[in-house]
Design a protein that fits this description.
This protein is 67% helix and 0% strand. The protein is mainly α. It folds into 2 domains: 71 residues, no CATH class; 84 residues, no CATH class. α2 packs across α3.
């Protein structure tokens, strides 16, 4: 019976999440380390996960927090993909060359720019301690250091239209 409660909590987390479990833990970490505010959604997700683990017999804290699930994209990778997508959208919105283009046109040009960066500059800059100063190289560096791939033109268009 206690396991059923844990599974119910996982389904509720997956269905009602406004924040990913990894993003909530990032906020908790910043709160504990630097005293930064934690959002109500992050606090609720973490508190509910801990409650399920303490009071309802979930076998692991990572499962009760929604960090571990059967199938699908792991929470940690989903967080990295969300961060990548946010970086790509921000670049599209702030680049004078790309901000007025449609997602499809911008996606095609951004994909070419990223490909050029990964083949020419990334091999030299991959071990650098910080991102290059200029855009778009800074964004391509940040995306690649997340450990996720830079998408192709079609996926760029999809991400930019969200």
């Amino acid at each position: 019976m206690t396991n059923a409660r844990c599974k119910t909590a996982e389904k509720a987390l997956a269905r009602d999440q406004r924040i990913s479990p990894v993003a909530a833990l990032r906020q908790l970490h910043a709160h504990l380390r630097d005293g930064k505010a934690i959002s109500p959604d992050a606090a609720a997700l973490i508190a509910d996960g801990i409650e399920d683990w303490l009071d309802f017999g979930c076998r692991s804290l990572d499962k009760s927090l929604g960090l571990k699930a059967w199938g699908g994209v792991p929470a940690e990778k989903a967080d990295r993909l969300d961060r990548r997508n946010m970086l790509l959208r921000r670049l599209h919105q702030t680049s004078l060359d790309w901000q007025n283009l449609s997602p499809t046109a911008a996606g095609a040009i951004m994909a070419m720019s990223a490909k050029r960066y990964t083949t020419t500059r990334w091999p030299r800059e991959s071990d650098a301690p910080s991102a290059p100063a200029a855009e778009p190289a800074a964004t391509w560096w940040r995306v690649l250091t997340l450990g996720v791939s830079i998408p192709g033109a079609k996926m760029f268009a999809k991400i930019l239209s969200e």
